[in-house]
Design a protein that fits this description.
The complex is a heterodimer of chains A (about 120) and B (about 110).
Chain A: E1 4-7, E2 10-14, E3 19-25, E4 30-38, E5 44-51, E6 56-59, E7 62-67, E8 72-77, E9 86-94, E10 104-105, E11 109-114
Parallel strand pairs in A: 2-11
Antiparallel strand pairs in A: 1-3, 3-8, 4-5, 4-9, 6-7, 7-8, 9-10, 9-11
Chain B: E1 5-7, E2 10-13, E3 19-24, E4 31-37, E5 43-50, E6 53-56, E7 65-68, E8 75-79, E9 88-95, E10 104-105, E11 109-113
Parallel strand pairs in B: 2-11
Antiparallel strand pairs in B: 1-3, 3-8, 4-5, 4-9, 5-6, 7-8, 9-10, 9-11
The chains are: A mainly beta (about 120), B mainly beta (about 110).
């Protein structure tokens, strides 16, 4: 059974810092990995999607890397801003096409960026 | 529409009552997913659809949960005879072309069972 863990569980940084969020998964047979953010009382917003054949994806100040063989992904946020404060979740899609829509979510990292 | 629309935002039911939640996916999206967020970050997959056909229902508690996506109607998730442990936020998501593509989530429906 796939298990996805995120470290740290919570993080507080001053504005302007660069930071790294970690995601690890136990089964490397994945189709892709997605990073989401969730604001309080809201749904999930997709940030980046990395296919299993890719090593990284970038969008603005965000960069996500994937090392499938070691079961790890990182989300790098450059020059953090208070608006980045949210819970960040990673989720993996299994390789089996019949259940590929069944994402397994990580435990989340709650990020607070202070002024 | 341009967003996944979920209704109602909040629903309160007494134990044993029926609950029905609705989801309108983004227009043109072929895949619809339902997830249950029980504790703060524990997301549990329930079911996915490709248009009106069930794609994967391996997460559904079959005894009391059912879901449909009919043409020209919002998708629905129904819970018969609710239990206290059904209290959760139920999220709907849609994806345009693939069951493994980028997901677009609604804001969720919070079900409270008393």
């Amino acid at each position: 059974k796939q298990e996805v863990t995120q470290i740290p569980a919570a993080l507080s940084v001053p504005e302007g810092e660069n930071l790294v969020l970690n995601c690890s998964f136990t089964d490397s047979a994945i189709y892709n990995l997605q990073w989401f953010r969730q604001d309080p009382g809201k749904g999930l917003t997709s940030l980046l999607l990395i296919q299993s054949s890719q090593r990284e994806q970038t969008s603005g100040r965000l960069n996500a890397s994937l090392d499938k063989s070691s079961g790890r992904s990182t989300l790098y946020i450059a020059a953090s801003q208070p608006g980045d404060s949210a819970t960040y979740l990673c989720a993996v899609s299994p390789l089996n096409t019949g259940t590929a829509s069944k994402l397994t979510f990580g435990t989340g990292t709650r990020l607070q960026v202070t002024l | 529409g341009e967003e996944v629309a979920q209704t109602p935002k909040h629903l309160v039911r007494g134990e044993g009552q029926k609950a029905k939640l609705y989801c309108a996916p983004i227009k043109g999206h072929s895949y619809v997913f339902w997830y249950q967020q029980v504790l703060k970050n524990e997301f549990k997959f329930l079911i996915s659809f490709q248009n009106e056909n069930v794609f994967d229902e391996t997460g559904m508690p079959k005894e009391r949960f059912s879901a449909k996506c009919l043409p020209n109607s919002p998708c629905s998730l129904e819970i018969q005879a609710t239990k206290l442990e059904d209290s959760a936020v139920y999220f709907c998501a849609s994806s345009p072309y693939s069951p493994t593509g980028e997901l677009f989530f609604g804001e969720g429906s919070r079900l409270t069972v008393l």
